[in-house]
Write a structure and sequence with these properties.
ten-stranded mixed β-sheet; D-Maltodextrin-Binding Protein, domain 2; alpha/beta; 10 strands; 328 residues
């Protein structure tokens, strides 16, 4: 055998031996995946918009594989401020805790000036927004919003408005409507409920003259004929919703109700980013997209410093609106 051929033969034998050694070496086991169990705090009673948002988000997060399980806690009252206080004290430094919040909570804080501050918690993401609808029970003598406004001008106290907590977007909208038609907003006879479910029940039972809530919360009762929708607070008509806006009826009242999630106080920047990633993955799941359509929500995902700045601006804008309407 020639020298060069012999060298190639030895190299082949060495490679074969090395391959056999690698084949005999036991495979390295993959590191087990961390089990993630989320806690979602809902600062409202079951049945309303925050409750629906929190539970649908949890379902979507699990569907997306971003968490293995979700535990829910409801604590309603005072525009979410009671739930905020409990979340702040109970979930401190918990990297797997989320609290549903939004424009209604900001309104409750502005009106109530509670000792607990939203800034103690950690902003994670804005999720979606919706517009309010004003509706009356099917047996109401009011057929249009113009008729409600005429009675409001005549005797403001005779119109009993029902909706979410004091400072909610429907409360602000009612005050802005009064102001736009020359009625002192402070004369609005507003009855606050702890969630959209209670507000809906009050309208159906005719305990209030007119009720306001997110369109999705009243949609079934409107479509079944149990309620009559008189106007929505959007700038233009909502897709597939045959209800005129307040603006097109002559009153420049446009306000939206957005919702988001915050993390616990004291978590690190890395833990905040992980929560934002979990939430973002959830918003890509089929369950979340389906909920957007079913509840007439507009997707508005926003995270990071952009969300921080958004909340600060919302506080300023809402406080100005509430001052203009005589609520503050």
């Amino acid at each position: 055998m020639r020298r060069d051929e012999f060298c190639k033969y030895l190299a082949a034998l060495a490679a074969s031996a090395a391959g056999d050694a690698l084949a005999r070496k036991p495979a390295r086991k993959a590191a087990p995946r961390e089990t993630v169990s989320l806690k979602i705090w809902i600062p409202a009673n079951p049945g309303g918009g925050w409750d629906t948002t929190g539970r649908v988000l949890g379902k979507a997060i699990v569907e997306a594989g971003a968490a293995d399980a979700v535990q829910y806690t409801n604590k309603g009252g005072a525009g979410g401020v009671i739930g905020l206080a409990q979340f702040t004290s109970s979930a401190r430094r918990d990297p797997h805790a989320l609290m549903v919040m939004g424009a209604v909570m900001l309104g409750g804080i502005i009106i109530g000036e509670p000792p607990v501050r939203l800034q103690a918690c950690t902003p994670v993401a804005r999720l979606a927004s919706e517009y309010n609808v004003f509706a009356v029970p099917a047996g109401s003598r009011f057929r249009t919003m113009a008729e409600v406004v005429a009675q409001l001008r005549k005797d403001p106290g005779s119109i009993k408005w029902g909706g979410g907590s004091r400072g909610s977007t429907e409360h602000v909208a009612a005050c802005l409507l009064a102001r736009s038609v020359g009625v002192d907003p402070k004369k609005i006879n507003y009855v606050a409920f702890r969630g959209g479910g209670e507000a809906s029940a009050a309208v159906l039972a005719e305990d209030v003259t007119i009720g306001g809530s997110g369109y999705g919360e009243f949609a079934d009762s409107i479509q079944s004929g149990k309620m009559r929708a008189l106007g929505v607070t959007a700038a233009a008509r909502l897709p597939n919703v045959p209800v005129p806006t307040l603006k097109e009826q002559g009153w420049n009242v446009v306000i939206r109700n957005w919702r988001g999630v915050y993390g616990a106080p004291g978590i690190s920047r890395e833990e905040r980013e992980k929560l934002a990633d979990i939430v973002t993955r959830g918003t890509r799941a089929h369950a979340w997209r389906q909920a957007l359509e079913a509840n007439f929500w507009t997707p508005e995902l926003l995270t990071g410093s952009d969300f921080d700045a958004f909340v600060e601006q919302e506080f300023r804008d809402l406080r100005a609106l509430m001052r203009e309407s005589g609520m503050v």
